[in-house]
Amino acid sequence: MWDIFLIILAILSFVYIVWQVVKRFPRLANIKVDSMPTLVAKRQKDIILKNRLERQSQEFLSRLQDWWQPTGQKISTKFRQNYEKLKNAERDLRRRGYKKLSSAVSQSQETDERLVASKQLINQEEYKKAEEVLLDILSLDHHNIEAYRLLAQVYRSTKEYTQAKETLEYLLKLTGKNDPDIYYYLADIARERGDLHQAEEDYLQSISLARDNYLYFLSLAEVYLDLEDKHKSLETAQKALSLSPNNPKILDFLIKISIIMPDKDLAEQYLNKLEEVNPENNKISEFKDKIGSLD
Fold first, then answer.
1. Entry pTM
2. Residues 73, 75: Cα–Cα separation, whole Å
């Protein structure tokens, strides 16, 4: 009987918190926010936080069936753990009500310190903790470009591609759609999701904004190869090499595409260049064998 009571109490607590959270969002629906940057930022933050709550809710429900155990003590422990998670979710949404720091200088200092902390957490692969810190930053500064960049990186690392894409698309609005790196990251996400044509489009957009970045061209060349367009792949990789003539990674790719085409003379040309700039490369002997087998 006590076990059933605890489960019912947990469910009721969950429903109450979700209701408190969800009822806040409709208030933004009737506001014309397109020309109001602050409210646009808040709306986007609401989306991010709502997605976070939904993920936590799904996790909560998936584990609910595991709560039923023969002893009341285990149920009580599970209840406390999950109730704390729900409290944390509600706390995330209350971040919008954070008080402003006493001065612009102190706010800037606080933001810088948290950005450093979030980067350290990302390097340590503590992605959930990094997300917490970054959402704190955005509660203080709704337009912090670096925080949005790092948040998108967190979502990419945890393979939450929808959240990463939404964050990057909002970041495009903040930067006036003229940041090539954002298009590059969007292309990476599209590629990871298997949408090669969207990846091609985004890589081309990044190249149009920065034609001197060899990595953009190399990534596009890899997409063309995945699309089985060998000639475009070769041409694009050659452009990458013109920007970084001694780059072993580009030479490696050019040797591979030359073998695939197949073009023995071209493959030998790039292999000789690779031996010149990186003689210790452990792929050289393998490439020699493959090139030797070409007619």
1. 0.69
2. 5
Sequence-distant (6+) residues with CB within 8 A of 188 are 156, 199, 219
The domain limits of the chain are 1-28+36-93, 125-177, 184-235, 245-295
- CB-based contacts of 47: which residues, under 8 Å, 6+ apart? 166
**Between 3.40.47.10, 1.25.40.10, 1.20.120.80, 3.30.930.10, what CATH number should domain 184-235 receive?**
1.25.40.10
pLDDT per residue over 112-140, tens digit each? 889 999 999 999 999 999 998 998 888 77
pLDDT per position as a tens digit, 67-114: 544 444 554 555 555 555 555 655 555 454 444 444 555 677 888 889
Q: Which two tokens stand for residue 180?
A: 């090539």
Residue 51 has φ and ψ, to the nearest 5°, of -60, -40
